[in-house]
């Protein structure tokens, strides 16, 4: 073989190896980006939880993915006391902050998000429900036995005033009765793919058989926001509702003190008991972007949320994928 032929053969072999190596590296990094399981803020949007937030159903609207948020300075994190937290951009299903998102906590009154979603499948807003028993535990709307109220007014009492008595009125009037309603609540969680949640009562009263996670509650919060009626209710600061005969009137005030105080906060649901600590699901809009903020077992849910809002405003940028 001539020297020229040998050099050409060696060059061809070297080129083939270079091409192979390039192909292998390309394949490795492609798979890495698609299935990366870690916590890098920059890589989450390739795969993390996107399937759950973008899952299609007849009840849910699919968010269109546009610009995707990223953390400007990853060394800066929001200062919070909550033991569990999850912050997600709704349009792209991109999480921007996580803390113990799969840990099970007592949900307290954020349970009422599932109560409302479950009941909405069975009742019309104008349906009339009767108060069959009075629940005097925790926050109540001061309903009276025998009083008859529309389902819509009871939803206001449940979602903005967090009335435990109103939650039980809905469950007691559910087709099949209270126990059937509790079963329906748990079927609803499965439908929403809330795989680490279980409910024993409609109000959120403490029970160690009743639990949820920050991630699961983000799925519940998203489902509520996709319901225009419920979304409007949770953004209401205060309202007075009556029974159908206009004999009893009930002033209702939103427990979420951030509503109307922080621009962009559109409600969602509070929860608090001695065992559960302070829970809060917040819907927040900033510069055309929408976020769900879930806090569980906080020492001060409102201060935590204020800190998170400030962190989002100052430390989140957006990029077009």
From TrEMBL:
MF term (GO), any: serine-type D-Ala-D-Ala carboxypeptidase activity
UniProt keyword Cell wall biogenesis/degradation, yes or no: yes
Domain Peptidase S11 D-alanyl-D-alanine carboxypeptidase A N-terminal: 74-297
InterPro entries in the cross-refs: Beta-lactam/transpept-like, Peptidase_S11, Peptidase_S11_N
Active site (catalytic residues): 109, 112, 162
Membrane-spanning intervals of the chain: 20-38
Domain of life: Bacteria
Name this protein carries in UniProt: Peptidase S11 D-alanyl-D-alanine carboxypeptidase A N-terminal domain-containing protein
